[in-house]
Amino acid sequence: MKKRFAGLVAVAAAVAGPAAAQRAERPVSLEIRAGAAFPIQSFGQAYGDLDIGSGYGVSGNVTFHHSPAIWFFAGYSYNRLEARPGTDPASYKGEDAAVDQGFDAGVRLKLFSLPRRVEPYIRAAGVYHRLTLHGTRAEGEDAPGFSLPDSYFSLGFAAGAGAEIGLSPRLSLVAEATLTSYQPRYGERANAALQAEHVRGDAGIRVRL
């Protein structure tokens, strides 16, 4: 009787083990990243020769792990870059900015696995972003500042490559470089002369929920 009971326990443990492992590998995760943003040269030239410099960006997304190699994600990103007229940049305050923000959704593909749980990947996304440009004259300057109203949300794309380093079954470090490009829309149609493009390099964490 004891041998039979021990055999049943062993079989139950063998069946429950993989099931418990599957429950631990939840297919949903949260990712948060922050880093530096750098404009593509044509970005500022389309806005009256604005001198658009570097800035910072933050983003967050929720990811569904469809398979070990294919993940789908959706989230929001915010990028703030310095923006000053190229003809007289010294007369403007430091808060002058080009702010690009909006929604992102796409797919991430794992390329292969390296030692120490390092996994390089590429990803592509559609973006639904808008752009705000504004600047304020420094004290003592009589001329008005510059500004454009918030653009309508416009469709564009983002493409990136990065690597993920697993620290535990639920926590990973993530580093990525991403190009974002879209045409801000201030009327019924997007103007081909207005192009918002920047590259962002950032790092963050991913947590399985």
Task: Characterise this structure.
This protein is mainly beta and 209 residues long. It has one domain: Porin (Beta Barrel), CATH 2.40.160.20. 13% of the residues lie in helices and 55% in strands. An eight-stranded antiparallel β-barrel has the order 1-2-3-4-5-7-8-9. β7 (154-166) and β8 (171-182) form a beta hairpin. The chain is elongated and about 50 Å long. It starts with a helix and ends with a strand. Residues 9-184 form the Outer membrane protein beta-barrel domain. This is Outer membrane protein beta-barrel domain-containing protein. InterPro entries: Beta-barrel_OMP (IPR027385), OMP/PagP_B-barrel (IPR011250).
